[in-house]
Amino acid sequence: MKVLVYRKCSTCMKALKWLEVNQVVFDERPIKEENPSYEELKAWYEMSGLPLKKFFNTSGILYKQMNLKDKLKEMSEDEQLKLLATDGMLVKRPLVIGDGFVLTGFKEKEWEDKING
C-alpha cells in the first residue's frame, strides 16, 4: 500500500498515526516532493470509481489562488489530470493506493472498512 502525504498537514499526520496504531504496513511518499505523474493519477482515478473532483485539494491555497472552483467545470477530465500532475499541493491528501482501492482524504470509518477489510 502506498500513502502520499504532506508532513505539514495535520490530517496527514492523523492518518499516519492511525496507520501506525493499526499496524498497517505501507510505503510513505511525500506528495509535494514526489508529485504523482499524469499516468499514476489517471490509473488511480480509473481504479477509484470516485469523481475526479475528489482528487483535488479544494481547501488548498493553490486551488483557491488558481480559481479552480470555476475553471474545473470547463476542463476535460484529461486536462484536469494533467493539471493535478503539475503540483502535489493540488492533490487531495492523504492519498492511499491499496490493492484494488484508492482513498482520498482521511475518514477513519472509511479507512477501517477499506484497509482492515
List the helices and strands and how they pair.
Layout: E1 2-5, H1 10-21, E2 27-30, H2 38-48, H3 61-65, H4 68-71, H5 77-84, E3 95-97, E4 102-104, H6 108-116
Parallel strand pairs: 1-2
Antiparallel strand pairs: 1-3, 3-4
Which tags fit this structure?
single chain, 117 residues, alpha+beta, Glutaredoxin, 4 strands, globular, Thioredoxin-like_sf
* Multimeric state: single chain
Q: Would you count the extended β strands for me?
A: 4
Task: Give the CA-CA distance, first to last residue.
Answer: 14 Å
Q: Any guess at the CATH architecture? A: 3-Layer(aba) Sandwich
Series of H and E elements? EHEHHHHEEH
Shape: globular
Average pLDDT taken over every residue = 96
**Beta-strand percent range:** 5-15%
**Gyration radius, in Å:** 14 Å
**Main structural class:** alpha+beta
- Across the major sheet, the strand order is 2-1-3-4
The proportion of residues forming helix, as a percent range, comes to 40-55%
The name of the CATH topology is Glutaredoxin
Number of individual domains: 1
Report the top-level CATH class: Alpha Beta
Overview in brief:
This protein is α+β, with helices and mostly antiparallel strands and 117 residues long. The protein has six helices and four strands, in the order E-H-E-H-H-H-H-E-E-H.
Description:
- It is a single chain.
- Helices cover 42% and strands 12% of the residues.
- It has 117 residues and is of the alpha+beta class.
- It has one domain (2-116): Glutaredoxin.
- The protein has a 4-stranded mixed sheet, sandwiched between helices.
- The mean pLDDT is 96.
